[in-house]
Design goal:
Order of helices and strands: EHEEEEEEEEEEEHEHE
Number of strands: 14
Distance between the termini: 31 Å
Helix content: 10-25%
Number of domains: 1
Shape: globular
Strand content: 35-45%
Largest sheet: 7 strands, antiparallel
Strand order of the largest sheet: 1-9-8-11-5-14-2
Number of helices: 3
Length: 187
């Protein structure tokens, strides 16, 4: 589908991730301000950032609405999955590379990446994840799919015997991954 590379540089993933986690922490500390959302523990689902969850046989689908001119710091996903941008335009920065995605488009999201996302227009996303246990318990689903920090991600990966170094593969990745932290920049 359609994507345009906007600009690129060769920042190291560790520096990029550290800086992004610093930004994330500032946003959490300021979540008492108007239009700043996120507590660092839960995915945001409110009147401005609406999430709808659907389930099918061994699949979980998350539909998310994001208004124009909002900034998102992503959580870190533990699995590869596909996401679909059905409406709107976003600018996604992964490891210092920025890519503009224009609907309709889809991408494969690599596990272990942390991203900064800016909505350039009102957007509608769909993320599709495997759900091998068919659980509909959202706490269980989110715990298995997401981590908030790289430290949490590495601990979970080790606990489950997975290779946490797969995050290094995301250096090549210009794909999008969703989050627990939102900053809304309405003008």
């Amino acid at each position: 589908m359609f994507k345009n590379k906007i600009e690129s540089n060769n920042n190291k993933l560790s520096n990029y991730t550290r800086n992004l986690e610093d930004l994330q922490n500032v946003m959490i500390e300021n979540n008492h301000l108007e239009n700043v959302f996120g507590d660092g523990k839960n995915l945001v689902n409110n009147e401005i950032f609406k999430i709808e969850n659907e389930f099918s046989d061994q699949l979980y689908m998350r539909k998310m609405y994001m208004p124009k001119e909002c900034v998102v710091v992503s959580a870190i996903h533990h699995t590869e999955h596909f996401w679909f941008l059905l409406k709107g335009r976003i600018l996604v920065t992964t490891d210092g590379e920025q890519v503009e995605h224009i609907a309709p488009c889809y991408q494969k999201s690599m596990k272990g990446a942390k991203r900064l996302i800016l909505s350039l227009e009102d957007t509608l996303f769909i993320n599709v994840h495997k759900n091998p246990t068919n659980t509909k318990d959202m706490e269980e689903v989110e715990k298995s799919l997401y981590s908030i920090t790289m430290e949490e991600y590495i601990k979970k990966e080790k606990k489950h015997g997975r290779n946490s170094n797969s995050r290094n593969d995301c250096r090549r990745c210009k794909r999008f991954n969703w989050n627990r932290f939102w900053y809304n920049w309405f003008r």
